Automatic annotation (TrEMBL):
Family of the protein in this entry: Belongs to the type IA topoisomerase family.
Ranges annotated as biased composition (Low complexity): 240-255
GO annotations of cellular component type: nucleus
Top-level taxon of the source organism: Eukaryota
Organism of derivation: Polytomella parva
UniProt keywords, alphabetically: DNA-binding, Isomerase, Topoisomerase
Function: Introduces a single-strand break via transesterification at a target site in duplex DNA. Releases the supercoiling and torsional tension of DNA introduced during the DNA replication and transcription by transiently cleaving and rejoining one strand of the DNA duplex. The scissile phosphodiester is attacked by the catalytic tyrosine of the enzyme, resulting in the formation of a DNA-(5'-phosphotyrosyl)-enzyme intermediate and the expulsion of a 3'-OH DNA strand.
Reactions catalysed, as given in the entry: ATP-independent breakage of single-stranded DNA, followed by passage and rejoining
UniProt region (Disordered), positions on chain: 209-255
Listed name of the protein: DNA topoisomerase
GO MF annotations, alphabetized: DNA binding; DNA topoisomerase type I (single strand cut, ATP-independent) activity
């Protein structure tokens, strides 16, 4: 409720008696929350997506500690126990660093918003299974191509400049995400299986050129070398059955 929210703000040192009502009014006007029956504060899809985006980039901005520290310093200034200029300078430096860090990673927020609010998010085709929740992720085919899991509210970039297709229902043995088939365009275009999660979060330190939100052509090559190996040699189907045709042929030859 609104009263409980005010209590939490006071408990964590966010705002004052004069500023707290202004804060609540601001988040209502910006459509981050709505006030419903019983003065209940309910987050909107916009507010939820915004906070998820902040968590992807700088989780500290979602917590009360930074704001509470500023409030404490202001209190010390009022008591004559802190120098105003020093506090202002320190705060500006801190937020400049956070701002620069945020701008460098804004593509993560953009991808989440595009997947959550673009019409394609609702019209996107259920495509491959998420390794975390086992629900189907939506394939957003508009450039940049990406997979979006509504359940986990996560966006996974895909190689650009090619076609993404379903692939045998096999899953990555490292993370459980369903493999997809990537067909690159052009005369020298290659087709290879790929794990969407490993493509975005390479599991090996020597795997360079991985994409960060948008993906690059360099990551296609690295993705190919890893994931085509997974698809050929260590892929498992959705029931966990080994589909390693190479190992089967080897064992038969030994017999």
């Amino acid at each position: 409720t609104e009263a409980e929210l005010i209590g939490l703000m006071e408990r964590f040192g966010i705002g004052t008696d004069a500023s707290i009502p202004v804060h609540i009014n601001n988040i209502c006007e910006r459509n981050y929350v709505s006030i419903q029956a019983g003065r209940k504060v309910v987050p909107t899809p916009l507010g939820i997506t915004l906070i998820r985006g902040y968590q992807l980039i700088d989780p500290e901005l979602c917590q009360p500690q930074v704001r509470a520290h500023v409030e404490r310093q202001i209190g010390l200034i009022a008591k004559g126990e802190a120098d105003k200029a020093a506090v202002v300078l320190h705060t500006l430096v801190q937020f400049r660093q956070k701002f620069d860090f945020f701008v460098q990673r804004i593509s993560r927020m953009d991808s989440l918003f595009e997947a959550s609010f673009a019409p394609l998010a609702s019209a996107g085709k259920s495509f491959s299974k998420c390794g975390r929740c086992r629900h189907f992720m939506n394939l957003i085919s508009a450039r940049p191509q990406r997979l979006y899991c509504r359940q986990c509210e996560d966006v996974l970039g895909l190689p650009q400049g090619g076609a993404i297709k379903e692939y045998k229902g096999l899953v990555c043995p490292l993370d459980g995400f369903e493999l997809v088939l990537c067909s690159l365009s052009g005369r020298d275009g290659k087709t290879y299986p790929l794990c969407p999660f490993c493509f975005n979060h390479p599991p090996f330190e020597d795997l360079g050129g991985a994409m960060d939100g948008g993906g690059g052509e360099g990551s296609n090559v690295n993705g190919q070398s890893l994931h085509s190996g997974l698809g050929r040699g260590t892929g498992r189907d959705g029931n966990g059955n080994d589909n390693n045709s190479n190992s089967n042929s080897n064992s038969n030859s030994k017999e």
